[in-house]
Amino acid sequence: MRPTAVVLGVGPGLGMSIAHRFGRAGHAVAVISRSGARHAGYLAELAEAGVTAESFVADVYDKDQVLAILDKIEERFGSIDLLYYGPADQGLLPKPITEISSADVAQAMTWVYPAIDVVGRVLPGMLARGAGGLLFAGGVSAVRPMPALGSLAVASAALRNYALTLNAALAGKGIYAGALTIGGLIERGDIHQMVTSQPARFGDVGANSLNPDDIADTAWQMYSTRDRAETTFSAFE
Predict the structure, then answer these.
(1) Half-sphere exposure at residue 111, Cβ-oriented, CA atoms within 13 angstroms
(2) Are 105 and 150 in contact (CB under 8 A)?
(3) From edge to edge, which strands make up the β-sheet containing 132-139?
(4) Per-residue pLDDT tens digits for 104-157
């Protein structure tokens, strides 16, 4: 039975590149997003590339719903061998770090909590098999001070630290955890498309972009070689 990769928070940018890369390596792929409106297109694209894939609808911020979908995926494919966590946040508008409150941080942390819930669901099976992988996509404000991002920077740092600490705890048990720390717009992603379609409003911000295929290739290398727990990608250097 082929291994299964779950892409939680799939979109036209990095999520689909992750699906393609792990599918090319022989994984069956399950893609999840809160809306199924674009799933037919995603599945057609993956099928054309020779990737076995199915799509599922779940809101990552609805704990019961997303855990039920993970149960369904495991029943369908037999196991979950790689989990990629890359959902968008809930559209929070950041305040400068000097103006945030504990309530702002608590709201930003709602982006982190589902990662802990889904890991809690898939990790027991990985431990039983002595194999598996967990990948988390977060922002570069986790490692570089970006005061304007305020509570979002705090949440990014929390997700990164969770990934790195998981890797330290699981490395001797056959399970990999890694952080993809990203600074810049992701080509083909929704935000990139919005920004580049409105140059009068956003200027040349779209020039600071990253190729999602390159990030996905690196993610595969991290997972397969396990030679590092983090890679930082920045379009601002």
Answers:
(1) 26
(2) no
(3) 53-57, 28-33, 4-8, 82-85, 132-139, 175-183, 230-234
(4) 999 999 999 999 999 999 999 999 999 999 999 998 889 998 899 899 999 999
Contacts of 72 (CB under 8 A, 6+ apart): 56
β strands within the chain, DSSP E: 4-8, 28-33, 53-57, 82-85, 132-139, 175-183, 185-186, 209-210, 230-234
Domain count, the chain: 1
- Write the CATH number for 135: 3.40.50.720
Nearest to 138 by CA among 18, 232, 46: 232
Instruction: Report how far residue 162's alpha carbon sits from residue 127's, in angstroms, rounded to the nearest whole number.
Output: 18
Quickly list H helices, 148-211. Answer: 151-170, 190-196, 199-202
Is 129 within 8 Å of 176 (Cβ atoms)? no
**Full residue range of the structural domain in which residue 170 is found:** 4-234
Q: Residue type at 6?
A: V
pTM over 0.70: yes
SS3 97: helix
In the block, tokens 């600071």 appear at 208
pLDDT in tens, 60-110: 999 999 999 999 999 999 999 999 999 987 677 788 999 999 999 999 999
C-alpha 189, offset from chain centre: 13
Q: What CA–CA distance (Å, rounded) separates 40 from 70? A: 20
∠ CA 172-175-178, rounded to 5°: 110
